[in-house]
Amino acid sequence: MEIKLKKVHTSKDVTLSVITVAVGIGLFFLNTGLGAFIAACGILMLLFWKGGYKREGDNTLLQKKAFDVSHACRESLKGFLEGKDVEPQLNTTNEGGIIRLEAYYNAAASLAYAQLFDFSNYTYEPSTELVELRGSRADKLIEKL
């Protein structure tokens, strides 16, 4: 079963958008053009700026963290995502090339989704499927992030 994540608004996104619109309305009375521009930016932020993720069919709000790690960590990370009892290593030096780890997580719910990508031909190609981690396994990955 394929895991699909969609981008959603967080309370922080909505709050910043509303504040931007309010500042734009306030400035409208001092400088019409600038106020209208800032209010329009706030409205566009409200429509398009989404900083959170949710799995389809689940209401748990997730954060995304993606970074490049050393290729030397590939086997430990791949084994960890496959369910083996290994400690995931996240060495951010670029010895021997790099791989990309993308993780969507919620520390309070002990839930994480992770995927590895290999860097080849100037693009990131999926090395693993998006894997769901729960409980202590998710906590182990989250504390490394």
Q: Please tell me the overall pLDDT.
A: 88
Shape: elongated
Poorly predicted spans: none
Count the strands? 7
Walk me through what this model shows.
With 145 residues, this protein is α+β, with helices and mostly antiparallel strands. It has two domains: 51 residues; 82 residues, no CATH class. The chain is 36% helix and 30% strand. It is built from four helices and seven strands; from the N terminus they run E-H-H-E-E-H-E-E-E-E-H. Strands 3, 4, 5, 6 and 7 form a five-stranded antiparallel sheet that branches. A two-stranded antiparallel sheet has the order 1-2. The radius of gyration is 20 Å and the shape is elongated.
Question: Which properties best describe this structure?
Answer:
145 residues, alpha+beta, 2 domains, five-stranded antiparallel β-sheet, two-stranded antiparallel sheet, 4 helices, 30% strand, elongated
Entry summary:
Helices cover 36% and strands 30% of the residues. By secondary structure, the protein is α+β, with helices and mostly antiparallel strands.
